[in-house]
Amino acid sequence: MMGLRDVHPTAIVAEGAVLGAGAKIGPFCTVGPDVVLEDGAELVSHVAVEGRTRIGAGAKIFPFSTIGLAPQDLKYKGEDTETIIGPRTQIREHCSVHRGTITGTGVTKIGADCLLMAVVHVAHDCVIGDGVIISNNVVLGGHVEIGDRAVLGGAAALLQFVRIGKGAMVGGVTGVPADVTPYTFVFGTRAKLVGLNMVGLKRRGLEKGQLHTIRAAYRHIFSGPGVFKDRVAQAEAEYGSDPFVRDMLTFIASPGRQGLLTNMAEAADDEA
Which ranges of the chain does DSSP label H, i.e. alpha helix? Predict the structure, then answer.
C-alpha cells in the first residue's frame, strides 16, 4: 500500500484497494475495494473506479472518467466480472469503460500504451490491443475487438461484436457494421473500404517494395476479378509470404459474427 500522502484528502478509497508504489489519487476520486492501481498509476481528479478492476503501471485517468462500473446490459445481475487497463494507457476526460459480463468473456480489456481521447465509451467485454488511438466521442458496442495500433477517428460508432484488425484506420463520423481487415482504411456514414492505411504502414518503416506487395494483395482481394474466396486463395498463393499480407489473410479466414466489410467506396484511392 502507498502512503496517505499520495491520496488527496477528498478522495474516498475503500478498504481492500491495493495501491502500488508511486500511485496517485487526486481530488474527489472514489476507488472501490476490489481495485488495484499498479505502480505509478494516476487518477487525476473526479474519477470513479469500481468492481474488480486493475489499472496498469503508469496509466493515467483524467477527470470525470468512470472505470469498471456495471455494464449497460439488462442481463447483467451484478456478477463478479473484470476490467483491465494496460500500462501507460491514457484515458482522457469523460470516458466510460464498463466491466465485462458472464454472457461475454467476463472481462473488458484495454492494452498498453493506448490513448482514449475525451468522451469515449468502451462497452462491456470489449478487447482493445496495444498502442490503439481512439479519438473523441467514439462509441464501442459490447464485445468489440480492436487490434494493435489501430486508429479510430472522432465520433466513429462500432456495432457490437465488430472486429477492427491491427493497424487499420476508421475515419471520423463513420458507422462500422462489420469487421475491418488489418491495415485497411474505412470511411463513410456507413463504412466502406477506401484503401490501405498507408500512413500507418509507412510509419512502421516499410520499404517501397513491401508497400507495393501489400497494396497488390489488397487490390487483388477486394477488387480483383472472380468470386471473393477465390481471390483470397489466389492472394495467399502469390503474396502470402509477406507478414502483413499474412495478417490480413488470417483475419479474413476467421470471420466474426458481423461478417467482413468488403464494400468499396466509389473512386476508392488506396494511395491514401
Answer: 198-203, 208-223, 228-239, 243-253
pLDDT of residue 270: 55
> pLDDT grade, residue 266 (50/70/90)?
confident
Distance in angstroms (rounded) separating the CA atoms of residues 60 and 85: 10
Mean pLDDT for all residues in the chain: 95
Active-site positions read 124-125, 142
* Cα angle, residue 111 at apex, residues 122 and 43 outer, rounded to 5°: 70
Mean pLDDT of 140-164: 98
Domain boundaries along the sequence of the chain: 4-143, 201-253
d(CA 42, CA 123): 22
C-alpha torsion 184→194→117→257, nearest 10 = -60
Separation of alpha carbons 252 and 260, rounded Å = 7
Distance CA 165, CA 101 (A): 23
- pLDDT digits over 110-132, tens only? 999 999 999 999 999 999 999 99
Q: Does residue 3 surpass a pLDDT of 50?
A: no
Tell me the whole-structure pTM to 2 decimals.
Answer: 0.95
User: Which spans in 110-205 are helix H?
Assistant: 198-203
What is the CATH topology of the domain spanning 201-253?
Answer: Udp N-acetylglucosamine O-acyltransferase; Domain 2 (1.20.1180)
Report, as an integer, the average pLDDT of 226-248: 97
Please check whether residue 78 is in contact with residue 105, taking contact to mean a CB–CB distance below 8 angstroms: no
Cα(165)–Cα(77) distance, integer angstroms:
32
Instruction: Supply the CATH classification number for the domain 4-143.
Output: 2.160.10.10
